[in-house]
Amino acid sequence: MDCSEPIAETPAAAYKLLFKAVIAIPTWHYFLAMLLLCMIFLYNLFEFHFLHDLFTGFWGSRVVLTYNSSSDLYRGVVSKCRTLHGRYLATPWLSSPHIQTSFLNFFGRPPRVCYKRQLFHASDGGTFALDWLRHFDVSGVFTHRNQDISKDDTTPIVVMIPGLTSDSASPYMKHLAFNTAKHGWNVVVSNHRGLGGVSVTTDCFYNAGWTGDVREVIKYLHQEYPEAPLFVVGTSIGANVLVKYLGEDGENVPVAGAAAVSSPWDLLIGSRFIRRRLLQRLYDRALTIGLQGYAQLHKPRYSRLANWEGIEKSRSIRDFDTHATCLVGNYETADSYYRHSSSCSFVPRVSVPLLCISALDDPVCTSEAIPFDECRANKNTVLATTQHGGHLAFFEGIAGSSLWWVRAVNEFFEALHSSPFMHHQNCAFIAGTKYRPSFHSNAIFN
């Protein structure tokens, strides 16, 4: 173009020059620009935080603890847990809550475990599986493989409650079971009714607020192994069930300590959240497909007790709960079911040492539902929140072969088990009394 040539001051001439400039730019420049825009879009859509981790030197984010200022649970137990007082850094190539959550469910890299199954018969005629992983099953010692746990065994037992449509075969449950047994404790996974390959034998199905099975299992284990301290871990929906059970029974639970990981806390808030954005709707759809698969396994009962046509046409968890859960559980609406089953209102009534772990970027269970105030008010509860971690993932290390929350829970249980409080607690249980010493008694740690 001749710069000395006069430029006509008209819109048409300006657009003509602009068009010439646009077509003069090489095509591959446009391709790079589109690629960059797509990368920015996907980076924000999937909530990646790799660049933030890079600029902060991969130092990770501090674990934030919420607890009562006069809590002896914190002073006597949690203060000794290095994991809870450290920082959490997600595996760099999994630096997205969505990638972490998906990787856990589709790959997970679980260790190899071999459970010993026990069929449990509930008082209402229901049957479900208790899958045991004993400490000597993973210790490399083969002399005790065919032996059962003796009734006077003092080895702690950790009861694990899986999440929605999950069972003992889920990758995160294998991670937790293997690592806990590796620490020298016995593990039992209490599978939900109708899962783990066991058929439903009554007209009762589990749901997010169903605490009856957990209550019966805990009571049975305490009676069967009275010398063994009982600890309980609930994950996702299982965490909601656990906290609700602890709150319902208050001081009358034979549990030495508990942990709730990635709990939804308030199901009503969660039901709104999971339909809010595109990715959340994908999770909603995926979980609904899982529930429909569960219903398909037990179609004869569901088709009689619920609206089978509605179950098949469900496109969300709310749809499934409306056509199935509410009808089977005698709830008026899905909202009434969510209000009745949410565990957040039961936190103030929990009287056993409880550790709660949640990630603020959890794409399934929103941080909006985390009961910060309730946890701060209860001296028996400590809440640990991390900036990242996804839903039940919390992968750490370059290889991404371990889960941070599994390490944190095991360390908490070990610190609790070795604390002076355990002696007083076990004596009360062995004596068969309902009295349990309050964990916030200052005399315990003097």
TrEMBL record:
Keyword Lipoprotein belongs to the record: no
The keyword Transcription is assigned to this record: no
Protein name in the entry: Embryogenesis-associated EMB8
Gene Ontology MF: a single term: short-chain carboxylesterase activity
Parts of the chain that traverse the membrane: 28-46
Residue span(s) of domain Serine aminopeptidase S33: 156-396
Family: Belongs to the AB hydrolase superfamily. AB hydrolase 4 family.
InterPro entries: AB_hydrolase_4_sf (IPR050960), AB_hydrolase_fold (IPR029058), ABHD4 (IPR012020), Hydrolase_4 (IPR022742)
Active site: 236 (charge relay system), 362 (charge relay system), 391 (charge relay system)
Pfam families: Hydrolase_4
Swiss-Prot/TrEMBL keywords: Membrane, Transmembrane, Transmembrane helix
